[in-house]
Amino acid sequence: MSDVNEQAIIEVLRGVRGPDDPQDVVSRGLIQGLQVRNGHIAFTVEVDPERAAHFEPLRKQCEDAVFDMPGVLSVTAVLTAHQEAPTPQKGGAKGGMEGGKGGMQGQEDTGQQQKKTIPGVRAILAVASGKGGVGKSTTAVNLAMAFARSGLRVGLMDADIYGPSVPKMMGLSGRPDATPDGQKVLPKEAFGVKCMSIGFLVPEDTPMIWRGPMVMSAIQQLLYEVVWGELDILLVDLPPGTGDAQLTMAQHVPITGAVVVSTPQDVALLDVRKGLNMFRKVDVPVFGVIENMSYFLCPSCGHRAEIFGHGGAQETAGDMETDFLGEIPLHLSIREHADAGTPIVMAEPDGEYAKAYQKIAGRLGEKVERALAEDAVTAPRIVIE
Ligand SMILES: Nc1ncnc2c1ncn2[C@@H]1O[C@H](COP(=O)(O)OP(=O)(O)OP(=O)(O)O)[C@@H](O)[C@H]1O
Ligand SMILES: [Mg+2]
Q: Which of 30, 180, 224, 289 lies 20 to 30 Å from 303, alpha-carbon distance?
């Protein structure tokens, strides 16, 4: 088990500065969104988008310095932008998802955030968590299955560019095809759900080293350069936490609503508050909280064990004046089916776990409809293209 921690990483980064810079990267406030997961480190280097190429050597220096630390297994340092690059000429963005700067940036940041809709996509549901490893991706794929089983046209976008897990959980691999003109990418499909993930574009088990493309640019390409077609709902599996990638996404993408997934532990629940506050700050409606790994039902004796405590998410939802959407038990078969590439809602559609997801999807479906109806009254949707 690696014991490298955030503080140690910050200390090392304090030793990094460009040849002509009076201050190190930490003092200049360039290091953001530091995430440490079992020796796998990710952070962003915030730069002026106009000068991204200039900053590439500094990004590399940061990455190398952290990689040399004992206990570090992989480092992902990403150049990212405070503000967006100017809007490119229409049609100028080439397809091909692994490169280029700011290809599909939305509108210029005018202070008044403008959100670019995705043609044909009726609603976007963001699945978020304040903390990593709480089962956000498992929840997202199973909710996608549940929506599809109830007859909706569903898409699933894996925005977790640091640790994409949708391909594995949906049993998909290989590179997606491009449209004949090479301008856009076709999503892959599993169980009737259209899927897109950065994981399709890099080999599995390869630590993802971002060599320059910016985080938001990647996410925007995954959203806007993909031929989603007509969708009733597009689920977005966000990266864990409340860092820049999440915030930028919440500010720029027309999210109909967000759900926050949590386990019942106090520490996870503390982060739920941060997640809820983040969405509120950027005026994204929060549909509620889902408690995952809520309890364990012993398959042989039927005993219900509340391993991480129980009911904490419901209480937090109440405190934070948002809805509690339901609970998903902890069960080996949920994990096994996810690992095997067939989410449990599809593998055991009549089982009690599928029913738990189905129930939550039903509640969310109602909330999506209500939000769309309110949206239509207060701010009629502008149809683009
Ligand atoms: N209800 C559940 N019962 C049993 N195992 C579960 C359950 N939910 C998730 N898991 C397992 O827990 C692990 C973490 O889940 P998952 O990858 O969905 O979490 P995450 O929040 O998306 O993590 P990350 O922060 O790494 O993106 C996986 O191995 C998954 O199969
Ligand atoms: Mg995940």
A: 289
